[in-house]
Amino acid sequence: MAFHSCGLLLCLLSTLPYRTSYHFQPPKNWINDPNGPMIYKGIYHLFYQYNPLGAVWGNIVWAHATSTDLVNWRHHNHAIWPSQPSDINGCWSGSATILPSGKPIILYTGVDKENHQVQNYAVPKNLTDPFLVEWVKPPKNPLMAPTSMNQINSSSFRDPTTAWLGPDGRWRVIVGNKRNRRGIAILYRSKDFLNWKQAKQPLHSAKDTGMWECPDFFPVSISSPNGLDTSMIGSTVKHVLKLSLDDTKHDYYTIGTYNYQKDVYIPDKASIDNDSGLRYDYGKFYASKTFFDNEKGRRVLWGWINESSSITEDISKGWSGVQAVPRTIWLDKSGKQLVQWPAEEVEQLRMNRVDSRNKVLRGGSTLEVTGITAAQADVEISFEALDLAKAEVMDPSSTDPQVMCSEMGASVKGKVGPFGLLVLASKGLQEYTAVFFRIFKGKNKYVVLMCSDQSRSSLNEENDKTTYGAFVDLNPVHEKISLRSMIDHSIVESFGGRGKSCISARVYPTLAIDDGAFLHAFNYGSESIRISRLSAWSMNEAQIM
After folding, report:
1. Residues 272-287, mean pLDDT to the nearest whole number
2. What is the enclosing helix (H) or strand (E) of 404?
3. How many CB atoms lie within 10 A of CB 340?
4. pLDDT one-digit tens code per residue, 85-101
5. How many CB atoms lie within 10 A of CB 543?
6. Distances (CA, A) of 207 to 13, 116, 203, 275, 435
7. What is the dihedral of CA 361, 367, 372, 377, to 10 degrees?
8. Cα 322 to Cα 320: distance, rounded to the nearest angstrom
9. DSSP string covering 299-338
10. Counting CB atoms within 10 angstroms of each CB, which of 189, 280, 323, 338 has the fewest?
11. End-to-end CA distance of the chain
């Protein structure tokens, strides 16, 4: 079970206008959740949910690719596929844990012959192979299962996390679950990683959140952007619990305290513990998974970006789904939120740099950015508002940034904003995706709104062109308003405020394709905006074989 070299069909697929050039995706078919990312003997591993038979969900196996730089990837045989009674109806998501001996173990959800969700494990066949091309499923599976005694819902019991080792020498792992509308992180403990016992109480739960998919639980340093081993605890550490909500397809997280004596997680009072709380990404980004990169001392985040096209279009394309650019993630110095930034290795693909400094954009004006391949680019830009006193007063009832962005798209003129970038724009601006900011006067502070407006991204009305929005926690009096947008044919990944707010979008222009795509900075507010710095690069193509 493997990928094969590019035949005529696959080579044709790779030239289609919506195929990405530096985002991770296989040659064809459906992909979804990133699974078990890790680094082993200097090699990065990414497993992911994959349908080898088509461009829609089904027939799920764990596909496997490796890299030395998180950018260029080589596929291997599928690592895990249905072969035991405990996973014969599907090998769903899970995580990898590196034992103190250096041995990796995968925990994953299997769907058994009765269609119950159970937790299994797999180990490498040959630990001397840094590419770990063969995996073995011991006969002890499953390790964790619903029973009449534990009363676990067998249709909502999935996606084990990376395990962590407590001071008492016992391993812990959580599995996503729900009871009625309460989301639950079921906690298990083990002395040997093979015999697991369910704890009497969950690590955490929250009402009215529905099924918790793909939970992720990890420590972050309160004093450094460096990543931490998943088992780290202490007074200089906070913990993050990320949950993927099956009901809304949003990844939200809280920051809080892990009481390891009681094995419970308590979110900080400032962390909203539901779908209206903090999110990794306010656009298309789901089923995310982090891992600790011990060689570079960082925590790396992967996330699945699904399509906005119809199933019919996906089948016609022959593929569906990509992985977001890998991101480094750490705790903001405020301690209130996480910050994300594309992994530094991505910058090796940059070429043909163009720069601009101190350009004033008057109200209603645009500035074309030339000299790059606008359909395949990386852009960093910083803005300064020249007269914040003219900012509009924010309606106190406006609390949902996505609603605000939907009602005030890029074409709705304001005072200080909208200003930002028009990406994947056609020559006459019949098509464009607008990533922009607006500044409002709030109560005792200015409020910065970031939007990704897809409403004019394509003349094809069959696509989902939802507009996304997020607030950015910065003070425009003292800070420049920065934006980085990574543009890759049908993806726009944007990072506002140096990664404090992120929005990913899928778009499928009919005119703004390849050489027909253009890039502009714009200001459609009445007040002038200064571009203090703009740097843009064409992006080379990653090698994904």
Report:
1. 96
2. helix 401-407
3. 20
4. 999 999 999 999 999 99
5. 11
6. 45, 24, 14, 11, 34
7. 60
8. 7
9. EEEEEEE--SS-HHHHHHHTEE-EEPPPEEEEE-TTSSSE
10. 189
11. 15
